[in-house]
Amino acid sequence: MIEQLIQDLRYAARTFRRSPGFLLLTVMTIAVGVGANAAIFSIVNAVLLRPLPFGRPDDLVLVTDSDRRTRQSNGDATPANFLDWRERQHSLTGLAGFRQATFALSGGDRPESVPGAIVNTNFFDVLDVKPALGRTFMATEEGPGAPRVAVLSDGLWRQRFGAKPDVIGQTLRINDEPHTIVGVMGAGIDYPDRAGAWIPAHWRVPDDPLAATVDPAPQRDHGYFSVLARVRPDGALDRAQADMDAIAASLERDFPATNQYSGVLLTPLRTELVSDVRQTVLLLFAAVGLLLLIATANVSGLLLARATARHQEMAIRIALGASRVRILTQLLTESVVLAVLGGAAGVLLAMWLIGPLVAMSPADLGVAGAITVDRSVLLFGLAVSTLAGLMFGLAPAHQLARLDVHGDLKQSTRGGSSVGQRRIRAVLVAGEIALSLVLLVGAGLTIRSFAKVQQQPAGFAPDRVITFGLNLPSARYPTKPQKAAFWQRALESVRQIPGVELAGATSRLPLLPGNSTRGLTIRDLPPNTQASAHYRTASPDYFRAMGIPLLRGRVFEEADREDRPLVAVISASAAKRYWPNRDPIGERFSINEPEITIVGVVGDVHGAALDKAPQPTVYVPYRQDAWPSMVFTLRMENAGRSASLQASVRDAIWHVDKDQPIGPILTMDEQLSKSLTRRRFSVTLLSAFGVVAVLLAAVGLYGVLAFIVAQRRREIGVRMALGAQPRDVIADVMGQGLTLAGLGVAVGIVLALAGTRLLSSLLFGTSPTDALTFAAVATLLVAIAAAASLVPALRASRVDPLIALRDE
C-alpha cells in the first residue's frame, strides 16, 4: 500500500512537471479559496468560537434591567435594585457590579489616561480567574473608609512597570487617590473592554460617575453600571431567569413608582459580547464559503479538461491491464497533491492577510491581538483543502467511470469529448457565474448602502474641528462648582492656542459610544405618554464650534450659571415630538426638580450613528450641571492636526492642572470615519471577494471555451473549408460563452433574491432586491463573459483549414 502510494506520488510529480502552467494555475486558484477561508475563519475563531479566558465561561451571565412587557434590556442596573437582587436571588452565585471608567494615572513623568473598571470586590471571583502576581480584592476593601487598592492588567504592568515582579505593594496614584497595587492579572484578562486596571468601589455598588462622593445605594431611577453573575452549576439559565422574574415582580409591588413594568434579563456573557458583530462575521464567512465553491468549480473544470485530454492515456493503461480502481486512485492522488499544495499556499496567504484584516477591522470586533494562525486555523485549512480536493476530483472520476476504452483507443490524441462531458463543464462554469453574481450583488448592495450612509447629513460640520476628552478625578474635584470652575478655566486656556477660532465642550460627542437619557416631565402631554430625551451638557460656544445650526431662540451664554434660572436648548426632533404645532421657546419641563425653561432650538444631530435616526435631545449649560468628563471641540483656522498643535493642547490643559491626562486628540473627520469602520470593513471585504470571484469565473469560462475550440479544431477547419466566414465562427464560440453566462446569471439572480434578504439588517436605505444593483451586476457579468469568450473566439476564427485537416 505504501509502495503504491509512493509510486502514485512520483507519477503525479512527473505529470505536473510536464504541465507547470496547469500546476501553477490550479495551486493559485486553490490557495485563493483556502486562504480567504482560513483568514476569515481566524476572525470567526477569535470572535465566536474561542473560549472566553475565564473559568466555566458558559455559566457567566450579564444581569440587566428590562422592560417586562417587551423582554428588551434597558441596559444598566440601578443600585437599589442590584442590592435587592443580590439579597433575594437563589439561582446565581456572586452578583458583582462593575462600571467601565477612564482612570487618570499621575505621579510619573506625565499623567496618563487608561481604560479601567470600578468593581465590587467579588468581581474576579465571579469571573473565576486568578492573578499572575499577588492577589485579587478582599471583601473588606470596598465601601466607605476601605483601603484603596488596585489590580493591574498584564499590559499596564508591562508598559508602566517594565514587568518587574516587585510591583506588588507599590503605590499608584489613580484619579488623584493613592492605591496600593495588590495584584497583576495574567495576559488576556482585560474585561471589560480592554481594562488596564481595576479598583474597588467606594460604596457597596460602583460609584455614580455624576455624584461619586454620594452613596448611590438608595436610588432606583438611574442605571449606570453592569452586573455580572454566574448560574449555579446545578442550575439552568431558564430556572435562573424564572427566579429573577419573580424578584422583579416583587420589587414592582414594593416600589411601583420606579419599578413599574420593570423586569430582569439574564444574557449569557458570550452572547452579549458578540451580539453586535456576530452577523457581520457570519456574513463574511458565508461570502468566503461561496468563494471557495467558485474556486473548487474552477479547479474541477481544469481537471475535467485535463482528464479529457488524457482519455487515450487512460484507455491504453486499462488495455494493458490496469484496473479502473487503480487509475481512480492515481487521479485522486493527483487531486489530493494539488489540494495539499494549494492548501499550504492558502495558509501562507492567510498569514499574510491577517495584518491587513486587523488593520481594517473595527475596534468593536475585538480581534486586535486575538487573530492568529493557531492549530484550529491550520486544521480548518487542512479540512477545507482536503474537502476541496475530493470535490474537484469527482469530475475526473465521473469521466473515468464512463470511459469507452475501445472508442478512445481509436481516437487520435485530439479526440473529442462527449456531450455529457461538455455538459458537466458547462454546468461548472454556469455555477461559477451564478455564485459570482450572488457575491457581487451582496457587495453591490452594501456599497450602495454605505454610500447612502455617507450621504446622510450628520447635523454638524466636521471639517476643521479637533476633539479630545478629559476626565476629572472626584477626589480632586468633588463638587459640581469645582468641576464647573475647571471646565471654564480649561476653555479659556485652549482659546489662547494659536489657530483656534472657537472652543466648545460637551458631555458626549456625536457618533461616539455611550449615551445618557433622561425622563422629561412635560405639561399638556397626552395621557400615558412618556417623554424622554438624550441628555447633554454643553458650553456656550459648543454649537458654533461644531457647526450645529441654531433654528430659533438662542444658545447658551456665559450668564447661564449655577446661580441663575435653569435653561435648556432642545433639538428639532424634541420640539416636533413634544411641542408640535407651537413655538417651544419659553416652554418649561422638568427632570426631577426644578423646572427648566427652553431658550433655543438647534438642528438634529445623529448621536449614535449616521444610519440611526436622530433622537430628541436636551442640552443644558455645563455650569448648571457640571459633569466629571467632557469632550472639547476646537474649530481651527486650518484643517488637520500637527504635533505642535497637540503639544499646545497639552500645555494649555496642564497650565490649569499639571496632573490631568488628555485623551487622544483626533479630528472630527477621523471620529466620523471611525463610526463607519464596521460598514467599511464589510464593504471592502465583500467587494474584494466579489472581484476575485468574477476573475475566477472569467478564467473558468475562458478555459472551457479554449478547450472546446481545441476539441472542435477539425470541425471548425471543415466548416471554414466549406465556406464559413471568420465572423460566423466568432459568433458561434461567443454564443456558447454568452449562453453559459446567461444561464449562470439567471440562476444567480434566483439565488441572490433568496440570499440577500439575510442582508436586510445590514443595509441602510437600500432594498435587498434593489433592481438597479441586480441589473448592474448582471450586465457586468455578461460583459466580462463576452470579454472572456472573445480570445477563444478569435483564435477559432484564425484556424487554417488545411493545417487543421492535415493534423487530423
Describe this structure in words.
The structure is a single chain. Residues 412-416 have low confidence and may be disordered. By secondary structure, the chain is of the alpha+beta class. It starts with a helix and ends with a helix. The strands form three sheets. Strands 14, 15, 16, 17, 18, 19 and 20 form a seven-stranded mixed beta sheet that branches. It has a six-stranded mixed β-barrel with strand order 3-4-9-6-8-7. Strands 13-21-12-22 form a four-stranded antiparallel beta sheet. Helix 2 (20-49) packs antiparallel against helix 9 (278-309), helix 14 packs antiparallel against helix 20 (677-711) and helix 21 (713-721) crosses helix 24. The longest helix has 37 residues, at 324-360. 50% of the residues lie in helices and 16% in strands.
Short characterization:
The protein is an alpha+beta fold and 808 residues long. The chain is 50% helix and 16% strand.
Instruction: Provide the structure class.
Output: alpha+beta
Number of helices: 24
Poorly predicted sequence stretches spanning 5 or more consecutive residues: 412-416
Q: Would you count the extended β strands for me?
A: 22
